[in-house]
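Morning!

This is the sequence you dropped in the shared folder:
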Amino acid sequence: MEEGHELANHMTLDEPYTNRSEDEIIESLDETQKIIVEAHGGKGPAIKWYRAPHARMNNRLRAIVESKGYVSALADVHSNDPRIVCAPKFHAKYLCWFAQPGSILLLHCADKKLHRQQTNKALRIAIPKLMSKSMGYKIVNLSQLHAECTKNP
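The structure's back. Tokens below.
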């Protein structure tokens, strides 16, 4: 967190919550938020971010999440990295091809060592390219992007 990284609530299980009961949704949000607060040294982040598992969201889930004070964030560039393994160059190229101003890029850092290595390699390739003079992007966290978007809608 000291380096500006942020944690978003992604629920306790990586599965869609669109058909779960309100109580199950709130219980999962609260349980995950406790972990996030602990990771922040006992103080919660300024903005409570939420990313729906599998990017599945409906109006009911959105209303529950917002009622608990969360701001939803979904990615617009996702190279399907959990399914396409051992291809860090492909993922890096994909991120660079589809990134545009304000994009949120999604890569997974799964439990399997293979995925972590792939993500690290892809980012080592993509980040310098994205930040190069020819592309000119700046890497920011969600709060910085949110502030920029609300300042210049």
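Headline: The chain has a mean pLDDT of 91.

More detail when I'm at my desk.
O.
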